[in-house]
Amino acid sequence: MSETTASLPTLSYGSMSRDRKRALWWSYFFLIVFAIFFLTPPIYMMVTSLKTSAEISAATSPWIVQSPTLQNYIGLLTDSVFLRFFRNSAVVSVIVVIITMLVSVLAAFALARMKFWGSATLATGVFLTYLIPETLLFIPLFKMFAWVKETVGIELINQWWVLILLYPTLTVPFCTWIMIGYFSSIPKELDEAALIDGATWFQTLTRIFIPVAIPGIIAATIFAFTVSWAQFLYPLAFTTSAEELVLPVGIISTLIKGDVFNWGQIMAGALLGAAPPLIIYAFLMDYYIAGLTAGATKG
To answer: Which of 11, 173, 202, 245 could potentially form a cystine with 130 if both were Cys, beta carbons 3.0 to 4.6 Å apart?
Structure first.
């Protein structure tokens, strides 16, 4: 009986070890499948961007570059029109991020810590507005802009700066929800102690909550920048001339002429356009994950 009892932990440990190895192998398998699935498009884009138009049109393997060239990148980076697209996107994205964070931080702090009648319902309503897709919003917005033009005489269509007014409708609700979750995860004793010491709500926000909530603020900032930088529908609907276009729409509008697709420069332009968000995620990914998980585990 004692020998049987002594052998049970060994069998159990061996079974656990085999299950753990099996789970580990399955994890690696799905990780490899995931990596192949998501890395294949950018790799294909990079390979295509290094080809000439003649090589792209030739009946050769799409994954092999016979005569690599950087001409597609040089042509874009020396093109004043492409640089204007890049500048418009950068200016719009930075200003939208600033507006979004100012509104989101103040609104989230009020909804999370300054409890008042209907604050919980209002917080849920703020998030629900994010669920309304922009495909349902751009037509009413277009009619509103037409009404402004007829009533006041201010032309809002085909102006790059009007995107600064439109993008916060996409970024503010979700960023506010992220910050509500993060502010709610901060112990209540901090603001209670600050109020007892005579601090105002604004001083409590700026001196206590914002320094503590830096990961959440970074997560919301990254989200706002990514949405602003990659937005396609609103610029396509509200801007038309080359001087007013931003990068996502500008690449498609200028590099596709009728049924002629300049695939080399299209792929190069897409990779150059993806570079700023990629760099931001590479350096701030830990803060982004920390900000989102803190909001998800609040309370």
So the answer is: 173
Q: Which of 37, 33, 34, 168 is nearest to 96 (CA)?
A: 168
**Angle at CA of residue 133, ends 232 and 127, nearest 5°:** 120
pLDDT score recorded for residue 179: 86
Could you tell me which residues come within 8 angstroms of residue 90 by beta carbon, excluding any fewer than 6 positions away?
276
Give the pairing type, strands 260-261 and 256-257: antiparallel
The pLDDT of residue 133 is 81
Q: What was the pLDDT predicted at 298? A: 47
- Name the helix (H) or strand (E) containing 260: strand 260-261
> What residues are paired with 260 via a beta bridge?
257
| Amino acid present at 27 | S
State the greatest distance between any 2 C-alpha atoms of the chain, in Å, as a whole number: 95
Cite the DSSP H helix spans in the chain.
2-49, 53-57, 71-77, 80-113, 119-130, 138-151, 162-166, 168-185, 188-196, 201-204, 210-212, 214-230, 233-238, 247-255, 263-296
Find the helix or strand (DSSP H, E) in which 261 lies. strand 260-261
- Inform me whether the pLDDT recorded for 8 exceeds 50: no
Read off the pLDDT band of 201 (50, 70, 90).
Answer: confident
pLDDT digits (tens, 9 = 90+) for 79-133: 888 899 999 999 999 999 999 999 999 988 888 877 777 777 777 787 787 788 8
| CA separation for the pair 221, 34 (Å, rounded) | 27
State the pTM of this model.
0.80
Residue-level length of the chain: 299
